[in-house]
């Protein structure tokens, strides 16, 4: 069913290329597929413009990362929260790619991500991937890679367990939930690289931290930066 929905939404986006992906209004000034009003109203973090920002600070002391960023605040019942749900659960994967292109162009402009070699999306477990029909983070990564002129490694990492959502878990439980969650299967493709690890929403960072640790264990000479599309206003303390 989700695959069918994906196909219909892809066909829809071909026929209505000038429809804003956020508000759905027909527009003539859509840049990155998003209308002027939505681009004005989006609660951007601007974290990617500076190395010292709350996302980077959150990961410091937990795992070593080069840069860390998120694009907009995931808050309340806003249109932007709904947007994440639409591409994550609603079959509208093209939104993830559209937002990825926009985010990628901003990262490129910031200059802090100039030496990123490769983008790795956080993988879904094969069972979840089969049910959903796609990995939203892969589409996000593809959009970003296109704008940044780098490649995406879709199969470098794999998810070993189909762990339940992190949303309702606390401190130690979050850590247990992500223990041995990922594996690296193509270490040679990441060797010596600056990897940009990409996920949709940052809540506590437990999942991303687990992924960073897994990569650094398997590929010690790699360097890792982290970028999520959305972030909660207050990042949940990880310990
Ligand atoms: Zn709009």
**Which stretches are poorly predicted, pLDDT < 50 over at least 5 residues?**
none
What integer is the average pLDDT?
Answer: 87
Largest sheet properties: 5 strands, parallel
Span of the ends, CA to CA: 39 Å
The proportion of residues in beta strands is 15-25%
- Level-1 CATH class name: Alpha Beta
Each distinct ligand:
zinc ion
Describe the fold and architecture.
The protein is of the alpha/beta class and 239 residues long. It is built from 9 helices and 7 strands; from the N terminus they run αααβααβααββαββαβ. The strands form 2 sheets. Strands 1-7-6-2-3 form a 5-stranded parallel sheet. The chain has a two-stranded antiparallel sheet with strand order 4-5. Helix 9 links the parallel strand 6 and strand 7 (223-231). Helix 4 (79-88) crosses helix 5 and helix 5 runs parallel beside helix 7. It is globular. The mean pLDDT is 87.
